Amino acid sequence: MNPILQPGAALLNRLNFRGKFMLIGAIMFGVIAMLTTALVSSLLRDIQTVRQEQRGMGAIQKVVPVLIEIQKHRGLNSAYLGGDASAAAKLQEINAKQEQLIAAVEQDGGIDQFKLRPQWDIIKTQWVDVRDHSSGYSKPQSFVEHTKLVSAVHAFVVQIADASGVTLDNSLDSFYLQDTALTKLISLSESIGKLRAKGAGILAAQTSTPEERAEIMMLAGSIADYEQVVANNLAKATAGNEALKSQLSTQKIAGLISALKRTVSNEVLVEAPSMPAATY
């Protein structure tokens, strides 16, 4: 293993599976936050335009955690539906945290400034519906409904970027920064979230079908694809800017994802999985 990646792999090996996912999510959100901050600082046009884009990035940074909690809810609900009763309390914790995050989005005011209140209200209604009915879903239905909601929130993030002018920036480095932060990293996060949900259901049931294992392998492949795209985008965005390049290094994410995929291979992609769903 590359010596640079060994500390990340060693840390991941000491964590339980839920801890691994939480750590990766936290790192990815941190990268998104740094990217959006770097993107704002690179926009050197007239002050009114910069302020508009700063406002949009501020709103986006409030919305992304809402998306991440939906991904967590999907994974835990999959475990609950598979028979892990301990997941119920954790689902309630997410529900409470989500209320705080939703309130923070509305207090920020960006959705009203960019006239996106109707779209946001639809997302809130969809979240309440999923939250209140998810315990009665089948595992496939839970996966589908949560995934549709994640897609809706991701589309909303892009709407904020469009309304604030972020996606209209014609600077090449800014284009790659916003494309990475608002599209590629969120897509990478979603592939990891889907992997978590599918794996949680398998481990809770302590059995898996060939079809389920095939889905896991496909998700692992998509994670590898998005990881490469993120690395390529950041290389282009930071070319000639060594300070930014060191801040936005993907080596830590690469090490964690590599260790995660080994764990999935050893614990989930087996005919008779034995890892407890609560550990996952």
Describe the structure.
- The chain is an all-alpha fold and 280 residues long.
- The chain is built from eleven helices and no strands.
- It is globular, with a radius of gyration of 19 Å.
- The chain starts with 5 loop residues before the first helix and ends in a 13-residue tail after the last helix.
Average predicted confidence as pLDDT: 82
Task: Specify the overall morphology.
Answer: globular
Poorly predicted runs are 1-5
Give the CA-CA distance, first to last residue.
Answer: 25 Å
Task: Summarize the amount of helix as a percent range.
Answer: over 70%
| SSE string | HHHHHHHHHHH
Strand count, sense and closure of the main sheet? none
What class would the helix/strand composition place it in?
mainly alpha
The strand count comes to 0
Strand share of the residues?
under 5%
The whole-angstrom Rg is 19 Å
H/I helix tally: 11
Task: Looking at this protein, list some descriptive labels.
280 residues; mainly alpha; 11 helices; globular; disordered N terminus
